[in-house]
Specification:
Elements (H helix, E strand, L loop, with lengths): L1 E7 L2 H10 L4 E5 L6 E2 L6 E2 L5 E2 L1 E2 L5 H12 L1 E6 L5 H13 L7 E3 L7 H9 L6 H28 L10 H17 L4 E10 L9 E6 L6 H13 L2 E13 L7 H12 L3 H13 L15 H14 L38 H17 L4 E12 L6 E10 L30 E13 L8 H10 L8 H10 L3 E6 L2 E11 L2 E11 L2 E7 L1 H13 L1 H4 L3 H13 L5 H22 L7 E5 L6 E7 L2 E6 L9 E4 L11 H6 L5 E6 L2 E8 L2 E6 L2 E4 L12 H18 E5 L2 E6 L2 E6 L2 E4 L11 H18 L1
Parallel strand pairs: 1-2, 1-7, 7-8
Antiparallel strand pairs: 3-6, 4-5, 9-10, 9-14, 10-13, 11-12, 11-14, 12-13, 14-16, 15-18, 16-17, 19-20, 20-21, 21-22, 23-24, 24-25, 25-26, 27-28, 28-29, 29-30
The chain binds one DNA strand of 25 nucleotides through strand 3, helix 3, helix 5, helix 13 and strand 21.
Length: 768
DNA sequence: CAGTGAGCGAGCTTCCGCTTGACTT
């Protein structure tokens, strides 16, 4: 018989706590929720007051069994799931699933994993809070109703296997709307004036002031006229302002800010960040990584202070507690921090070390003094124009937390250079060294990255720390959005320079629109989004979650009945579902682009069975329309008649080579040449399938055949040794086999290969 | 590996939030 059994949500937490509690305590974990709505059906008896049908999912049957067994062997049971809506529901489900006796079962909570906090919790047990449980049930049932009633509407009216939900559909909406802002954005240019001014000083190292005119000039002529004015102007310092300022450290990490900074500083995807953090957590290196709180425990504050005192000294220390600002935060955990702040570096793989270092720096910096800066602004006036030049310099007087950590921003090309301005006096005369007017284009709003999308969702109070990464996976898995890089385009810009009294104009090339790991909406995402906005506007409204959260809070406070809340929501929601099923046609995103210039047939684009297609002609009256798939990066929404007609030029013959025809087309894997029934890919970014010539096609085929020859190291007929991406390997009947390390590949015989194949077949079987 | 766009219909798809392995490559 075990005296005391404590049940927590996470096994890593169970392990830690067991160490704190004496021998009378056994600590085990429920691995999160152990029961959920029935997976197959709706799982809700709507007519019977939304009575939920709960079941233990297949993968939780073993856990539930283990828990039951442990409970039966224990005298007292302490349920220590997290202190939030979900945690309270877990406690309630545990009591039901394990058939616990309420007289010997106690609900306890603690916010930090320290001996004090846990002992304190054990001294203050309470009952399960049914109001809080009911607010979770309302949340769960509402999400099921939304997801399981709207998704089938999409299957009928748009395409099978699609999905909609309170969180994912808003995430897609954000991305689609941002793309449309980019599509309609009209870039404008103006001329930015930068001047380099010399001062007379004995210091030849630091005698240049870099300044920008406070005004931009709309056109080239205006800029030219201004530079001509500059060539004869007298420049004089008209103002000097020196202002002290301070900078404060950012709060310690939550899930969302960790994901953002790991992306910006380390280039991690959201899922990668969570996987690495999970490893660190399981190894006991950091606290829990799914949290919305910026709170640090007293112990962490004290330890961080000790570290700062010994590493940097007293004046760098400033203990702070941050208020969590995000909407709907439940604060069941601490901020993400090092378990032991005095551990500066850890062992582990490179990513683990990098992420740990980031967390350590952010935590320590949050407990450090403000940085003190001095911002100097110098104004330079002209005697023949009211335009002022301004130089802004910044000097760090005391680095404070910046010694350890500076937060990154999403703005990519921050051109505001801050530097030390030489000492100057008011009314001092200056002469220009050079002045230039550079054409600058305005940029469209940026596309979302995974991390910036998480940031936006958090601001809107949509989704939870445990779901940010899965939500981003879902919208990519459904094909609504695609994460990819785009090369960008070149464009000419005009630069006018004034030097030694002469004005000259040159043209330069700048690249624009280059994208790295950005989220691009796909046609199906845009169609589904528009369909949802037309028919379920309330659900995809950015405020929907915030509004229902308010009601969940009321339920938690006992001021609203959860089934009543659901009834009110469902009666209007279900009407939307029925109305859409009854009255709305299929949505294909069809656009009629015009008529074929020769035949006059209608040309249109739409979402077809296998993806977006262009179509010439209409079906019916005996004619069969022709179809062609849209190319990559073409959208139904933006493709024009000419581009659509172009799609029908492929596949095309480029000519004959040694008696066989060469055909160029675009397939599943991009543009290709088909020759003698074999396929050769066109070079990305070099060859264009519409314009590639016979000569070039022959060249590509030759190149590929030659590199294929190099690929074959040994040829024993049915067994071959090939050189692949990861080095040499053996191929037999389309099966690949690894060559053991240390083998000299050039000495391999057919017998060696047979032995390797048999050996690896054995190990494959034994591992199964 | 390099397509498809006839039509019918059975059977399937799907949510959000808690938590980790168990899978395959």
């Amino acid at each position: 018989m075990i005296e005391n059994l404590v049940i927590v949500e996470s096994p890593a937490k169970a392990k830690t706590i067991e160490k704190f509690l004496g021998e009378d305590f056994r600590v085990i974990s429920s691995f999160g929720h152990i029961r959920d709505l029935a997976k197959k059906n709706l799982g809700i008896d709507i007519k019977n007051d939304f009575s939920p049908e709960y079941e233990i999912p297949k993968e939780k049957i073993k856990v539930a069994g283990d828990l039951r067994k442990a409970a039966a062997e224990s005298k007292n049971i302490w349920i220590a799931s997290d202190e939030d809506r979900e945690g309270e529901a877990i406690a309630w489900h545990l009591i039901n699933v394990l058939n616990l006796d309420l007289s010997t079962t106690r609900r306890i909570v603690f916010h930090e994993i320290t001996k004090d906090a846990i002992s304190n919790a054990v001294l203050n047990p309470r009952q399960v809070d049914m109001n809080l449980v009911n607010s979770q049930q309302a949340r769960r049932v509402l999400d099921r109703l939304v997801g399981y009633e709207i998704s089938p509407v999409l299957w009928k009216k748009v395409q099978p296997a699609l999905s909609a939900g309170r969180v994912q559909s808003v995430a897609v909406r954000l991305i689609v709307e941002r793309e449309r802002e980019i599509i309609t954005f009209k870039s404008e240019s103006s001329f930015r004036i930068n001047g380099m001014f010399k001062i007379d000083t004995s210091d030849s190292e630091n005698n240049i002031i870099r300044a920008e005119a406070s005004k931009r000039f709309p056109g080239e002529k205006d800029a030219l006229r201004f530079l001509e004015l500059c060539s004869t102007a007298e420049f004089r310092i008209t103002g000097i302002s020196i202002k002290p300022g301070t900078k404060s450290p950012a709060p310690p990490f939550t899930t969302s800010t960790l994901q953002q900074e790991a992306y910006r500083k380390l280039g991690f995807s959201v899922a990668q960040t969570m996987a690495v953090a999970q490893k660190l957590y399981e190894a006991g290196k950091i606290t829990y990584m799914r949290t919305d709180s910026t709170n640090l425990s007293k112990l962490a504050l004290a330890k961080s202070r000790e570290v700062i005192l010994s590493e940097f000294g007293e004046k760098y220390s400033r203990t702070r507690q941050f208020k969590t600002k995000s909407k709907g935060a439940q604060e069941a955990h601490e901020a993400i921090r090092p378990t032991y702040p005095d551990t500066l570096t850890i062992t582990g793989n490179q990513n683990e070390r990098k992420l740990y270092e980031l967390i350590w720096k952010r935590t320590i910096a949050s407990q450090m003094a403000d940085a003190e800066v001095e911002r100097t602004t110098i104004s330079i006036g002209m005697n023949n124009s009211p335009v002022l030049f301004q130089a802004i310099g910044e000097v760090i007087k005391f680095d404070g937390f910046l010694k350890v950590y500076a937060e990154s921003t999403d703005i990519e090309n921050n051109e505001d250079e801050k530097y030390i301005i030489p000492a100057v006096k008011k009314d001092m005369l200056l002469h220009y060294d050079s002045i230039s007017a550079t054409q600058k284009y305005t940029s469209p709003p940026p596309r979302y990255t995974e991390a910036s999308l998480v940031k936006k969702l958090e601001e809107l109070g949509i989704g939870r720390p445990s779901t940010y990464a899965p939500t981003i996976s879902t919208i990519q898995n459904r094909g609504y959005v695609l994460k990819e890089d785009r090369p960008g385009e070149k464009r000419p810009i005009t630069v006018i320079s004034l030097s030694k009294g002469k004005v000259s104009t040159t043209s330069r090339i700048e690249s624009t629109g280059k994208e790295k790991s950005k989220l691009f909406p796909q046609d199906i995402g845009m169609i589904v989004n528009d369909f949802l906005i037309e028919n379920f506007s309330e659900i995809v409204d950015y405020n929907f979650t915030a509004e229902v959260e308010e009601q969940f809070d009321k339920i938690a406070e006992g001021r609203l009945k959860w089934t009543g809340m659901l009834d009110k929501f469902y009666s209007s929601f279900h009407k939307m579902v029925e109305n859409t099923l009854e009255k709305k046609d299929r949505k294909t995103g069809i656009r009629i682009l015009g008529n074929h210039p020769e035949t006059g047939e209608q040309v249109s684009v739409k979402m077809g069975r296998y993806g977006p297609v262009a179509q010439i002609g209409e079906s019916g009256n005996g004619t069969k329309p022709r179809f062609a798939s849209l190319g990559k990066n073409q959208l139904l929404e933006t493709i024009n008649l000419q581009e659509a007609l172009n799609l029908f030029r492929l596949p095309r013959s480029v000519g004959m080579h040694e008696g066989d025809e060469m055909i160029v087309g675009v397939g599943k894997f991009g543009p290709y040449i088909k020759y003698k029934n074999k396929f050769y890919s066109l070079k990305k970014g070099i060859d264009d399938p519409y314009s590639v010539t016979l000569e070039r096609a022959i060249e590509i085929v030759k190149e590929k055949s030659e590199s294929d020859k190099k690929k074959v190291l040994k040829d024993f007929g049915d067994i071959r040794v090939l050189n692949g991406r990861f080095g040499p390997y053996i191929v037999k009947e389309k099966e690949n086999f690894r060559i053991p390390k240390g083998t000299e590949t050039d000495k391999l015989t057919k017998e060696d290969c047979i032995r390797i194949i048999e050996q690896s077949k054995k190990t494959r079987k034994s591992s199964k």
